[in-house]
Amino acid sequence: MCSDSQGDNQNDSWIFALAILLSSTFVYNSMGTINQQAMDQLHYVTELTDRIRAKSSPEEDGVEDSADFVSFFPDFVWTLRDFSLDLETDGQCITPDEYLENSLKLKKGNKGTENW
Fold this sequence. Notes:
Elements: H1 9-22, E1 25-31, H2 36-56, H3 66-70, E2 75-81, E3 88-89, E4 92-93, H4 96-104
Parallel strand pairs: 1-2
Antiparallel strand pairs: 3-4
Organism: Camelus dromedarius
Transmembrane segments: 13-31
Protein name: Guanylate-binding protein 1
């Protein structure tokens, strides 16, 4: 019997989805500031929720009550490490929460690109 230790992307996605459902807290650890690359990597996690939603509901549209759907997922903690930053915008000091909110605001993108 031969075992493939590499796996494939679909198998890895299902293992990750199962780990998320079995966890009480999901810690997303990223290096540096919140930028487009960090958002692109985080987008992978949101794609997994679509996979779980599609497979967990007999209905075509998925789970109708999002409150029921959210109750299956762990708390989300986003840790930023290995950087220092002056927390200010427009010359005003801001809190870490305000920094996060500003970083997650949609910014006008170039034609043909997506903003997450």
